[in-house]
Structures are given as C-alpha cells and as structure tokens.
Amino acid sequence: MLNRIHTTGFVLHARPFRDNSRVLELLTEAEGRTACLLRGRGSVGRGFVRYEMAWQGRGELKTLSLMEEQAAYRLSPPRLACGFYLNELTLKLVPRQIPLDGLVTEYAGALTRLSDPDEMPDAPLRRYELQLLRHLGEGLDSLDTQMLDPEAALVYEAQRGLRPASAAELASGDFVHGSTLRALIADRLDSRQDRREARRLLRGLLDYHLQGRPVVSRALLRPRSH
Predict the structure, then answer these.
(1) Which of 31, 48, 72 is the last residue of a domain?
(2) Same domain for 53 and 87?
(3) C-alpha–C-alpha distance, residues 75 and 60, integer Å
(4) What's the mean pLDDT when you consider all of the chain?
(5) SUPFAM superfamilies of this UniProt entry (predicted)?
(6) Which pLDDT value is given to residue 223?
(7) Neighbouring residues of 128: CB distance < 8 A, sequence distance ≥ 6
C-alpha cells in the first residue's frame, strides 16, 4: 500500500528531471525537509509560495499528487537574495525526513517580514538563523537575558555555551556585548552595534555546523544583511 502524506510547506529548490518533470526540495510541516517529484510543466512549484501538498509512493523520492497555492510572498529584487540565503541555509543544515517543530512557521514569518519594505532585513534573517541553531542543539535563544549584564563582553562557543571574553578576544573585538544578546533574543536589533555583533556571532555558529560547506548566497547579500 502506498503511503500518502498531506501537509503544507514551501519549495526550497527545484531541478529538472527527465522530460517534463522536476525534483522539488521541500520544507514541510509533516516531514521537515524532503524531496518529491512533480510531473508536468507550469508555474506550480515556485519559491516563496506556501502550498498545500500531498504525495505518495515508496522509496526516497515520492510523487506529488496535490500542490495548491495558499499564499505568495512578494520579495523585491534586493530581498530575493535574502530569500535565497534562507533556502540555502535550510538545505544545508536541516536533515531530511525529520519534522522540526515550528520551523515552517518561522520560515513563513521571515518571508512575511522580508516582504515588508519598511522593515530592515537584519532582524528576520537573524531570527531565522537563531531558530535553525536551536534545532541544531544550540541553546542561545534560551539564555536568561535578565541575568546578562548589558556591558559585559561575552563569547558564545558552539556546543559549549556562554563565557567571558578573554584578553585576546577583547583586544581583537571578537566578542558580543550582553546588550546585543538581549536584543537578539528579544528580536529587537535596533542599533548598528547590535546588528553587527549579532551577525558575526550567528555566522560563526552557523559556520561551525556547516563544517566547511560554503554558503554561496552570502555573496549576494549586502554587508548589513547577512
């Protein structure tokens, strides 16, 4: 008997497959990241669109039997690069067939905020990065911010946690202030210092988990937005 899955999700990447088919890399509520075969041509299967979808089949590559648009997120050309960055991070850091509680909602929330021309892209990008790191076992978002001295110079080490910055790190500037951690966790990166330090911190943690794999879409982003 064929196993049928009915869920909602997004297309992260598409590639041609044989004649008129494509293999879609999906982020879904039911199975996390998965790959499915979409037969036929057309506009179905676009990026930055939330779909109701269903698939069935045996083996690793299932066949989509339903794909209906629920909501489209209009990203202006400068913001498209941010969307590509979210997709690439998700493809490279999220394992297949493991449902991750809330990640589809966080992804949709990031697209909603990136669609707003009045909001700077830093905050939604940092929030999504933070949620990815939570699923990778980093407890950064669960820190007790009330216990953080805003003026403290701190270092957060992957898989280890928070500690005071060393003399060498103080001299090189390779640390974050307690105020930046408070702002990051509260999703209120209002100052230039907060945005700069949060970007550097999360990039270092993501690079640790990427294990040397490059993130090509970073080159498309403006310096203030990645």
Answers:
(1) 72
(2) no
(3) 32
(4) 92
(5) Nucleic acid-binding proteins
(6) 56
(7) 86, 89, 106, 107, 109, 110
